[in-house]
Amino acid sequence: MPSAKCYKLLILLSILPLLCFATNAESEDTVCVNNISTSVLVMSPGNALYSQFGHVALRIESPEQSYDCCFSFEEVPGLAGVLQFFLGKTDAHENAVPTAKFLDIYKQEGRQVKQYTLSLNETQKQELWQQLLDDCVNNELRKFNLLQNNCSSVSLRAIEHVLGDEKIDFNGWPEQFHMVNGDGVRYLSRHSPWLEFWNMTFLGTEADTRWPHEQQMSPELMPEVLKMASLVRSDGTKRPVVIGEKELLPLVNEFKPSPLTPMRFFGFVLIVTILITFAQFKWGLKVLPQAIDVLLMSVVTLGGLLLLHTSFVSGLFGVHWNWYLIPFNPLPFIIWLLWRKRQWFNKVYVFYTVVLVLFILTTPLSHQLDLPHQLLTATLTVRCLSKC
User: What pairs with residue 230 in β-bridges?
Assistant: First the structure.
């Protein structure tokens, strides 16, 4: 027989069908409603940088209570945007939105939404609902990163948390999970050259390792993994994790990457730099070469500081060494400030040129290193060589 707490919740639900908009007030009510449906929603990639991997959310439906809400792990709106994300300063929390409104957002963007119904029992469904409600009411903030705290991993952990004496048996993993991280990230970023460029900029030596499978989860790969998995009881009996699949919204606007790829952009920059450097020696051109030198020094210094922070402080991909700290770091600017007037200073350019050439030659030795980044390194090499 339902408890007093259950009756209290039923009354509250009848008054406020959209309980998901609850305030931050503390709640001790326990979900005790039957015929709940729980499912995973997977959204196709969007045009914004933060949505180019797609998105995952959990949907809770209770027809008896006219309740239908999506729970989505999303970043808290802020001013810094992309820079805040790469600095590891992005806060995220569980956000609840009525399903009709939630789907309307993706309909306006022309993005596909697929639903995968979970085979949880009634107790597990109620506990999942209660857990998601508690997360929304408590408004717990977590630092968003690409491994432990993202929409896929948070949703999967929420499901695993309510399984009780059962566990998910991942009967198989798609081949992408067996790649080294560099190849795996490139696969997931393949539809957006600039997304791949940014990811490989900060991936560092993590590109040459393999994360645990559950940390490699992404919106694109999650459906296939869940459809292959089973829920296993302690007595060994099994049932599938996913028991239904349907398309809620069709794909209307397929993601279209910019035709100006990193390869083309940095290739053009290198060619222009070579031509201006030639004009510097042939016709004594001064202003443009100096402008390029200032720009490159700024990129090296500011980019190096960002790489240092991302690699050792932010935890975006974990703490690691980043190979791009060799050509791009604040040290050249510091040396220039302190000793540029010394007679021997041109030897610094000779040394730096040798380092840059050797760095370009090591491209095949790490999965992080690629041609777009090395075109930028080559541009820096040209200008350093002009100083020797």
Answer: 169, 240
